[in-house]
Each structure stands twice: as structure tokens, then as C-alpha cells.
Backbone:
């Protein structure tokens, strides 16, 4: 994602898949395809007032190399590995408006280095989403949603005892996304669900940092820093093998501007830098099993396979989805 080691898989975990957004009953009145949702794609607002969705993700992330400015793979000897849990909570305020949050807890370590000082709580995003167009599969009209929110700087980012503890930005960040979802009937009485999305993140404030920080500063530094803008776009496909079993695939493109740092180091020298931007391509195959319209599980892996100025990361993960 960027140079701050803040890339959370799934990112990408902003997804709750059993939400039909008004379009899951695409096959017939007697057949309804059940979904959990793909690993990466964000879903829109829930479809009925008072519905609550709960989806915990569990992931292990390991870097397998580094992609330089030309996209060539280099060895990465001290990359950060981590185990994380990010849980999506979503509640329908009305039939078209929902609110969601995704707290993240992680523990990281380096193969030939230190670990985090314990389980770490990341920055906390809170989003409000509005489905402004309901799906009508018979007329090939998709469900369209928009959501906006703020990520609160709850993760450690300054005065760190260990560099590995730096998982936060220290800045309030504006979040915006547009999503599309549509469902089609394929030959053989199988459903195919398509999602297309685009997201954008921009810091609203700067972080005041002292000594060791998540921005790479060291002991004696005093100043400010801010993360660069970030965006993602992609699409997902979910193919219903049967009512309960679904194959899912995401393809996403991430980009991030470099972080800016301004201040003075331990010797009093002026520091003013802007980091290099980064980008990556990610693929995420997975399989879903849903034993009812309200409960399901998904397991798969996200993999960065191309990009520049970013680590190649492999992240097996699974999630349990429930809607009440």
C-alpha cells in the first residue's frame, strides 16, 4: 500500500456478503443464491432497517519479496509478518442507509528482528453508506451505493519503543467509496454476482511525531508527518456452483502517494522529505460455503503479483459472516 507498513488485507476486509442490496433473488422466486461475499470487495448498505451484520476475518500475512521502482522483484530479508483479526460490524439505520466500522488487531514480527510489543489496535474507520439505486435484475439494473467516513487515529504512531509498533498514521483520514453490484443468471441455473468498486483516502490532519515513529523517524526527531493519498479500484466475481457453494475471485489495483515528513532530527538539522509513491496489483481467489441465507464462511488468499515500490505479500485468510 505505501511505505508505512499499514497495508491491511482486505482491506480490504470491508465486506459483508450476504447483503443482497436488493438483487440476490435473480434466478427465480423459488431459488435464491446464498453468498458470503468475496475477500476484497466492499459491499453496500444492508437492505432492511434494523438488520445487523457481523463478520470477523483472520489473516496471516507474509512478504515474499520486494518490487522496486521498475517493478522488478528484489529479495526482502527483514519484511514484517503479522497475524491479524479485523471484524466488520454493520447496522442498517434505514432500508437504504447503514453504518459500519472495522476495528483491527494485529501482532507482527520480523524473521531476523524484533516483534511488536504485544497485540496492536490499528486506526479505526467508521463509515456511513447509502444505496441510492436498488437493483432490478430483470431489467439489468445494478445496485449502486456510496459511502463516506473517517478513520480515527487510534493506532500507535509516535514515541515508539519499537519500530514494529508503528501501525497507525496519527491523522484523521477521510474515506470515500463507490460500489456497484449486479447479479446474472448463467446457463445451467447458476448465478454470477459482479461487484465493481473504487475507494479513495485522504488525510485531513497531520500527525505530530516525536522520536521513533511509524514514518521511519528515529530518536531525537521532532516534527509533523502525514500519509499520502491512497486509492483502490477493482472488481469481483462470485459464481454459484450450488445454492450453498460459491467460487469467488477479486482483482484490485492499489496506489498510494508517499508520506511527507517535516521537522528536525537529533542534531537540529531540518528534515523535509516526501516519500516515493507505490502501487500494486492484487488477486484474491476464494471459496464460500453458506449453510443458510444468514450464515456462511469464506477461505482464500490475497496475493500481490505486480507493482512498484511495494512488498509482494501473500495473505491466507478466512472469515465467518452472519446477518441478524
Residues:
Amino acid at each position: 500500500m505505501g511505505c508505512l507498513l499499514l497495508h491491511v488485507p482486505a482491506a480490504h476486509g470491508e465486506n459483508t456478503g450476504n447483503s443482497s442490496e436488493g438483487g440476490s433473488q435473480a434466478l427465480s422466486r423459488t431459488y435464491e443464491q446464498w453468498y458470503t461475499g468475496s475477500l476484497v470487495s466492499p459491499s453496500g448498505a444492508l437492505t432492511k432497517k434494523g438488520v445487523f451484520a457481523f463478520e470477523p476475518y483472520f489473516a496471516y500475512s507474509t512478504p515474499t519479496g520486494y518490487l522496486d521502482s521498475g517493478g522488478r522483484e528484489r529479495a526482502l530479508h527483514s519484511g514484517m509478518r503479522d497475524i491479524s483479526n479485523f471484524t466488520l460490524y454493520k447496522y442498517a439505520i434505514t432500508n437504504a442507509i447503514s453504518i459500519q466500522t472495522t476495528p483491527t488487531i494485529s501482532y507482527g514480527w520480523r524473521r531476523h528482528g524484533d516483534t511488536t510489543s504485544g497485540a496492536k489496535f490499528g486506526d479505526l474507520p467508521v463509515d456511513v453508506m447509502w444505496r441510492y439505486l436498488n437493483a432490478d435484475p430483470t431489467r439489468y439494473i445494478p445496485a449502486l451505493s456510496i459511502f463516506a467516513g473517517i478513520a480515527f487515529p487510534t493506532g500507535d504512531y509516535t514515541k515508539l519503543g519499537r519500530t514494529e509498533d508503528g501501525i497507525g498514521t496519527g491523522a484523521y483520514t477521510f474515506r470515500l467509496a463507490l460500489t456497484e453490484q449486479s447479479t446474472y443468471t448463467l446457463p445451467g441455473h447458476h448465478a454470477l454476482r459482479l461487484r465493481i468498486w473504487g475507494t479513495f483516502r485522504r488525510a485531513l490532519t497531520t500527525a505530530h511525531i516525536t522520536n521513533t515513529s511509524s514514518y521511519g523517524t528515529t530518536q531525537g526527531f521532532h516534527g509533523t508527518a502525514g500519509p499520502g493519498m491512497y486509492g483502490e479500484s477493482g472488481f469481483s466475481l462470485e459464481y454459484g456452483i450450488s445454492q450453498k457453494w460459491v467460487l469467488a475471485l477479486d482483482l484490485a489495483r492499489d496506489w498510494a502517494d508517499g508520506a511527507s515528513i517535516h521537522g528536525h532530527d537529533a542534531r537540529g538539522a531540518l528534515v523535509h522529505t516526501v516519500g516515493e509513491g507505490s502501487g500494486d496489483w492484487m488477486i484474491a481467489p476464494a471459496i464460500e460455503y453458506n449453510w443458510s441465507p444468514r450464515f456462511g464462511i469464506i477461505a482464500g488468499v490475497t496475493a500481490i503479483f505486480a507493482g512498484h515500490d511495494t512488498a509482494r505479500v501473500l495473505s491466507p485468510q478466512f472469515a465467518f459472516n452472519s446477518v441478524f
Summary: Confidence is low (pLDDT under 50) at residues 1-14, 22-30. The chain has one domain: 9-323. The radius of gyration is 20 Å.
